[in-house]
Amino acid sequence: MPCPYPVALVDIDACQPERCPSPCDPQKDCVLAAVTTLEDQGSPYLVTNLHGGDLDEWVWTALTEWTTGDASAVECLGKFVIVVSEDETAILYSDDRGVTRVEVDQTQVTDWAAHAPRQIDALDQTFIIVVGADGYIYGSWDSARTWETLLEGAITTQDLNRVMIARDNSNVIYVIGNANTVLKSENGGESWYALTGPGGLYGAQALTALWVVNEHEVLIGDDGGNIWETVDGGETWTAQNDPPSLPTNATISDIVGCGCGILWMTVKDEHGQLEQYNVIYRNVDGGANGRWYMPEGIVVSGVYHVPFYWPEAIACCGANRAIAVGGDTDEAAATNGEITLLA
């Protein structure tokens, strides 16, 4: 479904824990939230869906508090939603899926002005973690009302791109960033240490996608099209085989698990010279090496300068229903955002 506004969708989240329904489950109870870039002469949007991603059921809410910057990431916990904006150096939180919103900005969290928040994760409202520019990490223990700086760029000064709390042990948290940066906490964010990043064989790649299978098993994607896995908590990393038809110069933009050992992965190629390919993969073996494949009919491609969308993120409602979002994030050309339902 093309967006009704000149925006690109940059992130999406399912507002419930992963689950393993029957393949016949219509999964209409799954709630989703996505966020967009800045509308021309307007605001970014929070986009919600209460009906499992059905393409005619999206509700668009303008985030009118922000008029100069894109939204960057969204976290959805039932009716409680948090939207991060790196450009605005602020977050918005809402207890009613965006109908009413409260802004927290650099006047309340002084580090955000110079070290902007970028990405977010949470299991519930009792602890919310945000990673930011220059190696900064922030946490909230009161439903995003107040924030504490957990790491002040002491281990790395690289921008941090993704964060995920292990679902089987909330004390274990992984963070990835530019220049092959991987950070880990084993005490719920109180202290951090650097792991040897997986990209040493290929130079200092930016690490761009993260899925924590459990506290010991982690998948990471980078901006060179590589997928890395560890089964020992990040002590050692193995490069997976390239998935079929992996685009040249691809960026692994997102990896998400859906229950039943099923994962989805989005890949974008914004660097092609003649053609640019944007691909969605599935894996039904827990992310195992060599088991990624392209389900028929969901490869999006286009000749250079012809409209197409770059898949930026993906969420899933159980094992058999996924929703991908994307669009051209170039501000001058962001007129072709897409929502794709894969069911």
Q: What does this entry look like structurally?
A:
This protein is an all-beta fold and 343 residues long. It contains no helices and 27 strands. The chain has strands spanning 9-14, 32-36, 45-49, 58-62, 73-77, 80-85, 90-94, 102-105, 117-124, 127-132, 136-140, 148-152, 160-165, 173-177, 181-185, 193-195, 207-212, 218-222, 227-230, 238-239, 251-257, 263-268, 275-283, 300-303, 311-316, 322-326, 338-342. The strands form seven sheets. The protein has a four-stranded antiparallel β-sheet, with no helix packed on it. The two termini are 14 Å apart. 51% of the residues are buried.
Question: What tags apply to this protein structure?
Answer:
42% strand, four-stranded antiparallel β-sheet, Methylamine Dehydrogenase, Chain H, mainly beta, 0% helix, single chain, 343 residues
Helix share bin: under 10%
- End-to-end C-alpha gap: 14 Å
The CATH homologous superfamily is termed YVTN repeat-like/Quinoprotein amine dehydrogenase
Average pLDDT over all residues: 88
Q: How would you sum up this structure in a few lines?
A:
The protein is mostly beta strands and 343 residues long. The chain is 0% helix and 42% strand.
Give the helices and strands, then pairings.
Elements: E1 9-14, E2 32-36, E3 45-49, E4 58-62, E5 73-77, E6 80-85, E7 90-94, E8 102-105, E9 117-124, E10 127-132, E11 136-140, E12 148-152, E13 160-165, E14 173-177, E15 181-185, E16 193-195, E17 207-212, E18 218-222, E19 227-230, E20 238-239, E21 251-257, E22 263-268, E23 275-283, E24 300-303, E25 311-316, E26 322-326, E27 338-342
Antiparallel strand pairs: 1-2, 2-3, 3-4, 5-6, 6-7, 7-8, 9-10, 10-11, 11-12, 13-14, 14-15, 15-16, 17-18, 18-19, 19-20, 21-22, 22-23, 23-24, 25-26, 26-27
